[in-house]
Structures are given as C-alpha cells and as structure tokens.
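re the bet — no i am not wrong, look at it urself. input seq straight from the record:
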Amino acid sequence: MGVVLASASILPVRAVAAAGPACSAVLGTTAVSGPTHAVAWRVAIEASTAVFSSVPGRSMHITGWLAPTDAAWLMVIARARAAHGRCWVEVRLPWRPNGSIGWINADRVVLERTPWRIVVSTARRTLTLFRAGKAVRTVSVVVGKPATPTPDGLFAVWWAVPWHPDDFLGSWVLDLTAHSNALQQFDGGDGTVAIHGRGGASLQDPLSTANSHGCIRLSNDTIDWLVHTIGPSRLPGTPVQIS
C-alpha cells in the first residue's frame, strides 16, 4: 500500500527533494517534516504497523505496534528519512513517558498537513488557537493545581470524543498524547491529560483558575467552537504546545 498525501489543507508546503530516493519514491517532492508555527503533518495508521525506537538499520528493534484503533491520527515530529530502501516518519506516540517517539514505515500511513495549532499557557491559564501561525482566538481555561500540574511539552490531540454536556467532562473530550506526571492512574485510567468541557461538579472551579487534576477545562460553548472550527475528524494529530 502506498502512502496517500491528502490535499485538504490549502497551505502551500515547500517542495524540495525528499530525504533520499526511498522517500522520493513515496513522497515525491513534498517536504514532510516536524511541526512549525504555520504547518504540521499528521499521519493515519491504516493497518497494524511496527514502531521502531530509531531509524531501522541492520538490527531492527521493534518497540511496539500501532493499529488504527490505537490512534486516529498521530503528529509527525521530524523530517522523513530514508534508510535501507524505505522511507520512515517519526511520530509522537500516545504512550508513557511523555515525549515518547517512534519511527514508522511511511508506506503504512496516510499523510495530511494541517494549519492548526493549539497553545496552552498554564501561567496565564489560557488556550489560544492558531491557524497558519496567526492567532484566531484566546480563551480562559482551568489548568492543573500545584499538586497535579498540567504537564509541559509538545503533544497532540489523540482522540476527539463527543460527550455529555451536563457531565463533569462537558460536551467534548479531546484526549492528548500527554499523561499526568503526578498521577499514574486516575478514575480507573492511565492518567491521560485531556482538553475537555465543563459540566456538573466541574463548574464549581471558575475559569482562569488552577484546580484540575491536570486536564485543561473549557466552557462547553468554547470547546464546541474549537471542535467545529477545526472539525472533529481533523482534530486528532493537531499539535498542542503546553508551557
């Protein structure tokens, strides 16, 4: 199965020679690289795919496997590279520890570029949505309290799940490839950090405060706007910078 380069984004991407003949055969002249302020790449896993800790060489060490059910889309974090007759892309993995990366065969994924980027400031307790490097809107949020802080780093949306507006998590849950450094387990899960709405008891914590267990909470109206501005199917793989 060959790679598919989706053309939904209108952003121009610099056309240069790909990293070696193997990548040129798969990607043509498209420069697939890590996220910038203006553009990022995301990949969809179409079939069970081996993950390698480094660009595979003669000794190919598999560190895990990804299936379509493990992640809708993942964010590309580095320039595509050729090795031993194949083209490889490096992705941010949804596993612990935070910052986990892996290389996968470019022949096994669908590639698409996105102009969207989400930036969260835990000091200002704000979330800003950027499109093509330009701020679209900044909103107030609830972030992690001192005992369970929201982790810093470059992450990505993992899943976008519609939820129940009156529930604690509000109308949408955007799971991130981020995990709490303070809580290995939370509410029966793995301590995954999410951007989500507010309902029920979570309304007791006002916006612009630091009172969560690490998640980033928005009003339901705001997260509805965020989801529908980017598109539910286009959110997974979107870069999320937290600092």
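see?? Confidence is low (pLDDT under 50) at residues 1-18. told u. also The radius of gyration is 18 Å. so pay up
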